[in-house]
Specification:
It contains eleven helices and 15 strands. It has 304 residues and is α/β, with parallel strands linked by helices. The protein is globular.
Length: 304
């Protein structure tokens, strides 16, 4: 997923280490682990799966999306768009699959839906992390991202990090299945006190209504959602701390663990789009900058 930029610290280049947007295993109690779970970068059997051949024969690939701007959503005219669907159109066309078909679902249902074959690939800007890497396999990231908060105008509580949220006893919210749950818990916030809402729009509404002091999301999404708000603003993007170190996330496409052949073919085309600069041209209309381009790998972010 992806949010706000601007004066967002996106010039910070991530150190090469395991990735973020990762949820604690205990988040399963919140019903979010399904969305959070994921892949181990190898885990394949046989010849790497037959899905690519079937997609070429059918001429269409089903994309699991979560209705999150700017990652993957249906626009006001009823058209599928977003950074991941537009990238999917480019990559799958190069793979011999001409059409993409959206299958909207909640973020927390993306991984269960993928593994139950409701769709063929997750195209929702999903962060790659160790928990998710146990359930699906990821392509290499097509972007990297920092975190940001939605707060009341003027940021009256001075919230700029998860540690600030804990120290100032702020009422905290984030989205279903979001890695930000883990970051808050790691900073010392009690998990049972976190308000879980469906998405960044619900988070904005909660902040504007005074039900919470802060909503945590990706830098890109928070920036975009507050643009028309008279009551709320997005904070400067920052890297959360994971085990005491600054952490930068990467978002990628997810595949069933048996479909290594499709994942590898996808990676080959993705690398070419990165090399030619076409990837940035695809992502730029959705608010991404060159600072969000990355050479991180799924293997790194899965912690292997």
């Amino acid at each position: 997923m992806a949010p706000p930029h601007g004066n967002d610290g996106h010039n910070f280049r991530p150190e090469r280490r395991p990735s973020r947007r990762t949820l604690l295993g205990s988040i399963a109690a919140l019903g979010a682990l399904g969305a959070a779970g994921c892949t181990r970068v190898a885990a394949a059997s046989g010849n790497g799966g037959e899905l690519l051949d079937r997609l070429r024969a059918q001429g269409v690939v089903r994309l699991g999306i979560a209705g999150e701007i700017p990652f993957g959503y249906i626009d006001k005219d009823g058209h599928l768009t977003g950074e991941a669907p537009e990238l999917a159109k480019a990559v799958f066309k190069r793979l011999g699959v001409d059409r993409v078909q959206p299958v909207p679902t909640e973020f927390g249902s993306l991984i269960p839906g993928l593994n139950s074959q409701q769709f063929d690939v997750v195209a929702a800007g999903m962060y790659v992390n160790a928990d998710r890497c146990k359930q699906v396999i990821f392509a290499d990231p097509d972007y990297q991202m920092l975190d940001s908060f939605i707060v009341r105008k003027g940021n009256p509580k001075g919230l700029h990090s998860y540690r600030d949220v804990v120290a100032k006893k702020a009422k905290f919210a984030t989205g279903t299945g979001y890695a930000e749950i883990q970051y808050a818990v790691e900073a010392g916030y009690k998990q049972s006190d976190i308000l879980i809402v469906p998405d960044q729009v619900a988070g904005l509404n909660a902040v504007e209504a005074g039900r919470v002091d802060v909503f945590a999301g990706t830098a890109l999404t928070t920036r975009e959602v507050v643009k028309k708000s008279a009551k709320a603003e997005a904070t400067t993007p920052f890297a959360p701390l994971v085990k005491g170190e600054r952490h930068v996330d990467g978002g990628a496409f997810a595949f069933r663990p048996t479909e290594t052949r499709l994942r590898d073919a996808f990676n080959t085309e993705l690398r070419e789009l990165k090399r030619t600069g076409e990837l940035f041209r695809i992502l730029r209309p959705f608010g991404f900058t060159k600072a969000e381009m990355t050479d991180l790998t799924a293997k790194e972010l899965c912690g292997q």
